Amino acid sequence: MARYAYVNGRYVDHRQATVHIEDRGYQLADGVYEVVGVRDGKLIDEKPHLDRLDRSLKELRIASPVSRKALVFIIRELMRRNRLRDGLVYMQVTRGVARRDHGFPTTAVKPALVLTTKNTRHLDADVGPGIAVKTQPDIRWERCDIKTVALLPNVLAKQAARESGAYEAWLIDSTGCVTEGASTNAWIVTRDSELVTRQTDTGILAGITRGTLKSIADKLQLKLVERPFSLAEARQAREAFITSATSFVTPVVRIDGEPVGDGEPGPTARRLREEYVRFADAGEAVT
Fold this sequence. Notes:
This protein has seven helices and 16 strands. The chain is an alpha+beta fold. The longest helix has 15 residues. The mean pLDDT is 96.
């Protein structure tokens, strides 16, 4: 079956999809992106993802290349062409094609829009054995709340984690606190049964799955505290886990080779994943 991409107004064969060499996203990382999960043909948290895309564009002063209504249509058409049932939709908007210059183009440039899809396995409520994380210094810029394509520090952290046998990297700021993962949000459950995750500010990305999980935790009457937590506190936690559009809720059972709690997925992460899967299953199917 052919696989399609959407590139600046056209649905094209994925193998032949290209952008101009002077696209500012390619040369200057002058662009933003979003990833929306798809489960059983249903988009998960589509509106919040599109809202965050709009915010990122506004922060970088990039005009939206198409209307919200048009983008929603493009997403569905690409899913239909690629027969996407479980996986993700990737969207990227750059400032467009212009002669290379660090400053914004002085002549009118149309923002570039690219969409692709990816098939993944069907995630269920079983959390599995849990994952390991490796800590790395947080060397990113100070506007991590903008979901830009400038991800080199994240790439280096993720690679260091993989080379150590870990699944994810947890980034540590100058005060010794965990900011977030290289591509996920970070959570712990303290010995006092507090559910803790860092507050949303310019130091982390306001994860969409993170936001949904806050609502789920509230319904479950869990005590949720949004604040920084140190690496030392994480190592002493009863549980830890990560969240994202692609990992849902995944327990962290080892940090830098040392077990978290008893080294097994804990009951809070298990319950939250079950409820998140239930939430995702209740979504509206794309037709």
